[in-house]
Amino acid sequence: GAVVSQHPSRVICKSGTSVKIECRSLDFQATTMFWYRQFPKKSLMLMATSNEGSKATYEQGVEKDKFLINHASLTLSTLTVTSAHPEDSSFYICSARADRGEETQYFGPGTRLLVL
Amino acid sequence: RKEVEQDPGPFNVPEGATVAFNCTYSNSASQSFFWYRQDCRKEPKLLMSVYSSGNEDGRFTAQLNRASQYISLLIRDSKLSDSATYLCVVNRTGGFKTIFGAGTRLFVKA
Q1: Which of A40, A53, A110, B67 is the most buried (most CB within 10 A)?
Q2: What is the pLDDT of residue B56?
């Protein structure tokens, strides 16, 4: 199956700092990538849809100035959590959809963010 | 009402048992359907797609009922390794929106 990587896998930071998370599709091109957040024992919540070469589409309630998304190429999307606060601590997962007519999403391994 | 609803469980079953999960969706514009499996503190992994004609993959059988707007997953001969959270996933047309159910937790015991 298709492979999606995320980096870093785990990050601990102080409140007020910014954290960048990278999502890469390793063996396929992905025009569209998705960013999710998951709190413990809760479902994945879509934060935004990242489109290569254009602005991301954010879900209702997600602050686009706080969660900056850049889809720089067909294989890379980044999520930057700006001025992180403890309530931003969560499991952030990206996924990518291959540009070959499939509807399947391939998920990255996720990034655990802990803001102290 | 949530757009995709699942029984959160947990389902506690012995090895070898057959267990079934149901999922209902409210948006009739939903186009495609999937079951994902998520292990604790891991990312979701695709288990199988779900088609109107039903599909089977080894011990796993998925069914879709568009008229009643529900999908199901049947696991036969449960293994310890089947213990996980099973996520019902629905893709909507128009902008390709994916909706995840909250998941059903399964514990298979020896």
Answers
A1: A110
A2: 93
Answer whether A108 touches B (CB < 8 Å): yes
- Check A46 against B34: CB less than 8 A apart: no
B96 in Cβ contact with A57 (< 8 Å): no
> Sign (positive/negative) of CA torsion B91, B97, B98, B99?
negative
Q: Per-residue pLDDT tens for B58-97? A: 999 999 999 999 999 999 999 999 999 999 998 876 556 7
Between the alpha carbon of residue A32 and those of residues A48, A110, B26, B58, the distances in Å are 10, 17, 25, 31
Cβ–Cβ under 8 Å, residues B103 and B86: yes
Considering only CA atoms, which of B10, B19, B95 is closest in space to residue A57?
A: B95
d(CA A3, CA A109): 10
- Residue in A70, A51, A58, A44 with CA at minimum distance from that of residue B85: A44
CB-hemisphere CA count at 13 Å for B19? 24
- Distance (Å) from the C-alpha of residue A92 to the closest C-alpha of chain B? 9
Chains A, B: CB contacts under 8 A, how many? Answer: 44
B2 to chain A: nearest residue by CA?
Answer: A43
Minimum Cα–Cα distance from B87: chain A residue: A43
